[in-house]
Specification:
Blueprint (H helix, E strand, L loop, with lengths): L7 E6 L1 H9 L4 E4 L4 H4 L7 E6 L4 E8 L4 E2 L12 E10 L6 E2 H4 L4 H4 L17 E2 L1 H12 L2
Amino acid sequence: MTEHGPRFFLALFSEQSWQEFRIHGGTVYGTTKTKQTRAQKLEVGDLLICYVSKRQVFAGVLRVTGPARYDETPLYGQGVFPVRLDVEIVTAVDSDDGVPVSDLRDQLAIFTRLKNPKSWAGFFLNSFNQFPDEDGKLVAAELEKR
């Protein structure tokens, strides 16, 4: 967290992993082992913006409640996802009720900074990409309305 409040980061989910995450209580976010170094930079209080990749929707906000750790105990049906963060759900909706990225395209700073406007999806390929504060606040506010 910064002195101005929590930082916002991307948390990727598939449709299946979003459902399983919520069914299992929504207390542990897991991702691939290649994200271990990035995960260790997150701090308690930081916020994760949940993005369901194939649907291209924002579906939740999670607050980090503990440091990153490595655990190869199976987490979701699709894989191990050994890089783990303890989290709590701030907001969560079904992906059917999520906020489509396209609805916020003209309002998000991440789109205005692109060299090629058609290459916007690149930001959404890696968990723990950091959102500009104004983008994180906007997405969180839109999800609260749902």
